[in-house]
Amino acid sequence: MTVDHGRGTTPLDRLKAQYDRDLRCRECGYVDTDGAWQARTTGDRVSYRHVCPSCGAIETRTLRLRD
Q1: Stated pTM of the model
Q2: pLDDT in tens, 5-44
Q3: Range list of H helices, 1-67
Q4: How many domains does the structure of the chain reveal?
Q5: Is residue 3 a part of any domain in this protein?
């Protein structure tokens, strides 16, 4: 039996969920209540990106994965 606390199933899912809780633009202060971070991977890196719908500022965070 598994317990789902709405946090995702992998550490990367949980990290994205944490990022999604903080969608305040660092440039203009707008809070994107309907937005979410987009995740992409190249295999050895995971990049998270959010574009502010108010001013268009782009915030990124990148993780490098190691063996």
Answers
A1: 0.77
A2: 555 688 888 999 999 999 999 999 999 999 999 999 998 9
A3: 11-20
A4: 1
A5: no
